[in-house]
Each structure stands twice: as structure tokens, then as C-alpha cells.
Amino acid sequence: MFSWLVKQVLEVAEPLAACAEALALADVLQGAAQLTLAGRYCCPALSDDEAFSITAGRHPVVEEALPPGTGFIPNGCDLSPGQRLMLLTGPNMAGKSTFLRQNALLVVLAQAGLPVPAEDMRLGLVDRLFSRVGAADDLASGRSTFMVEMTETAAILHQAGPKSFVIVDEIGRGTGTRDGLAIAQAVLESLHNQNRCRAIFATHFHELVQLTEALPRLKAHTMRVKEFRGEVVFMHEVIEGAAQKSWGVHVARLAGVPDAVLRRAESLLKTAERQQMAAAPLPLFAPSPSSNHKADVLFEALLALEPDSLSPREALDQLYRLRDEVRQIRSGPEENAG
User: Fold this and answer.
1) What's the pTM?
2) CATH T-level fold of 45-246
3) What percent of the chain has pLDDT over 90?
């Protein structure tokens, strides 16, 4: 009987496969229609430019996994050309990783022709999506966690372009603090000046926020946190600005670390913060090699000026010219290219 059944199926294999394909398509379309009609998903607007604007976006998987009665906090994301690189700071458990992943998922859904969990989404087509998140190792191949992290970072820096979308979560945390900060800054500068991609760069290196003064397309955001009577409340909202601290000890308390260890950690943290204030910071605004020559030319032009021989109008013209040259050096190659 089984052999007979197999024979009958094989005789109509092509019509059955076509029927299965049609049913699968109908199932996907009907599911998409139900999501859209409920008013919780929208139809994204796709274009050939570099637009990236999401209003009240949500993580489709996390939202469904929440306990009954618990609402997902939506967040927007604006990576339009004028601010295509987002620097995201904030404590652990505040929602940074969820925010990174939800925006990547919305890009995949939109370009698959499906509705997205948001009030509105406008997206310039993405040619490649890169993700550097989480911690993993490959010990059998002799690759540590940090080596894997650097390998993935290298792939992004070599392949991402202006039409790409990149999410980065904690680059440089697997090595020494100063090494890690230096690597994170260099990667951030490369994403801004060389790759010129749309990206969300999450980090605990709060010092990097200062780079918003030197990188015109970089916009600082943070996860909103409230402190009330010694307790920390994570609001899971993305807002403009920068985190003032990481609240790592608070997260350790939530995890159940013993009180004695927490008190010791708080004491050590206060001591380290005092020492850090007195230590010399990394040269966050040191010029890149490509701008050194221009800086030298600028210095020579400044030294060559003879203020006593200039009329007020000539002095003002020289001042404007020097200011324009400084702006070009600070803006990097992108601004110079228009």
C-alpha cells in the first residue's frame, strides 16, 4: 500500500508542488494582511536614495514574547543623510541590543515586501546588512572572543558602503580599556569618513560622545534612565544625548551578586573615577594622517601672516579664510567632496 501511495504521489508531483507553493504564498499574504489590518503594522515606503526613518518601531519577536498585559516600548530611528551614524550609549539591560536588532529586522521585513511593526517607515534600499553583536569564540580554530570580534569588524570595514546598514554592539570591550577605546574610535571614524554607511554604534565608551563635535554626521543618543530613591529604572526609550555612567553595579545587584561584593565594587568604582578624572585622556580629536598635511599648511599660513601690515578688512578676510580651512580639516574627506 505504501508503494502504491508513493507511485500515485510521484505521478502528480509537479501539480502537488505547485499547489503547495500557491498555498504557502497565500498563507504569507493572508498573514501580512491580518497584521496590517490590525493597525499595528504598516506598509514601508521604499526608495532608491539613502533615506532611513522609522517612527515608533518595535521588535516583532520580543513584542510577542512579552507577558500578557506588558506593552512593548516603541522607539523611532532617524538615520537620514545628515545624521546617518548613531552613537548609542546607555547601561546594560536598558534595551540597546533590542533596539539594534529591531531596526535590522525591520530592514529585512521591508525589503522582503512585508509589513513592519511601526507607525511609519521610509527606507532607501539597503544593499548589504552587517551585524557585529554578541560574544562568541572559535577555540578549536585558535580564535578568541576578541579575535572573532575583530574579524567581524574587519569584514564590515572592508565591505560596507554608502547603501549598507550596519549595527555594532560593543567594539573593543574584549581587550584593555585604552586599547579598546582607541579601536572603537578608529572604527567609528572609518564608518563615518570612509564607509559612509547608515549605522547604529552602541558602546559603553562614553568618551566617544565628544566625537560628535568633529564628525558632522554623528548623532549621540542614549537609553533613558531614571533614578528614584537610590533605585534605577530603565525606561527602554531612546533619546538624544549621552549616558553619564553605565550602572553596571546596579545590573550586578539585579543579578543577585552578594551585598558585600556590591559594596566593595562601589568603593572601587568611586576610587577609579577619581583617578580617571586626574588621568590624561586619549587624544579624541587628534587629526588623522590624511589631515596632517592640511593642518601643516594651515599652520604655515597662520605663521606667515603679518597682522600689523593688514587693514581691518584684510584681517577679517584672512580670518574667514582660515576658519573655512579649519572646518574642512575637521569635517574630513566627505565634506571636502561635497
Assistant:
1) 0.75
2) Rossmann fold (3.40.50)
3) 51
